[in-house]
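Usage

Read records sequentially. Each one opens with the input sequence:
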Amino acid sequence: MTVRKAWIVGGAVVAGGLGFVMVLVVGVYLVAGNLVGGMAAGGRALAKGAVPAAYQQLVQKWGNLCPALSPALLAAQLYQESGWNPTVVSPADARGIAQFIPSTWATHGIDGNGDGKRDIWDPNDAIPSAASYDCELAKYVKDVPGDVSDNMLAAYNAGAYRVIQAGGVPGISETQNYVRRIRSLAESFAAPPSRLDPTRQAAGAIDFAQKKLGTPYLWGGEGTAAQGGRFDCSGLTQAAYASVGITLPRVANDQYNAGPHPSRSQLLPGDLVFFSNDLGDSRAIHHVGIYVGGGYMIDAPRTGAVIRFDPIDSADYFGATRVTEDGAKALPTSV
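and closes with the structure output:
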């Protein structure tokens, strides 16, 4: 990753009695870089909880089936296709967690768990089949110039023949966008290999949230005039990042996938911090806030409370996301 200088001055918290005063100064973020360029397709570890615990071992194992694939790429495809829902059916009759069309399943589905059946609805068969299909496509395009993982994803979207004919990712906007989305989204499922760089929009998102301090909470609130400018937790974070030009999903457990995941010790102001009923599953996230430094966040906590500063360290602290433009753009509109 090539990155120019970035700087930030964080927040300081002075606590006393029943309240505290937050003094927060956030510097201007100046960062440029390619979030997805050069990502190795090998066995990079999955980010904590990004893949539901029921499927994590499957994704980790089968995501290493061939060099063109990785657990993070496989996870990104599954999330894009179904949002981890093993019972979903698309308008095109694509079925299950990997969204196979029955005719494709008939030729590419495998018995992943060795029980003698190929069940399109069973993630133990469908996830291995998705990996197997990816790797089969990678073989078809192995001699095509360019990045083998990009060509594999392009073949998944447009067909191997078009990739071979084009000598790489074809000039089809849908296919180019698909490759870009999956490679960007994969960053949300991979454990970061090194320090994460700050984003230039973080200061603006915090500024927005600070201006809402003291506003009463409203379940389902998105800050509209009809709602009296009130928010719930994910409505506040969505609006804060919308104020700096980044569109986030509406609910907290989808916002978790809007970028890579810093550790607790790597948090910077502007990171989204999440809380879950199941510390192994991001789909069980129930709350989100905006980190401001010093172990505190701005959040809209619950009915009867107001938008305020709260500590982040609690038993249900799940993790954090450094929101990026590419990461947010990669998210499916509905999962």
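Summary fields computed downstream for this record:
- The chain has a mean pLDDT of 87.
- The CA atoms of residues 291 and 297 lie 4 Å apart.
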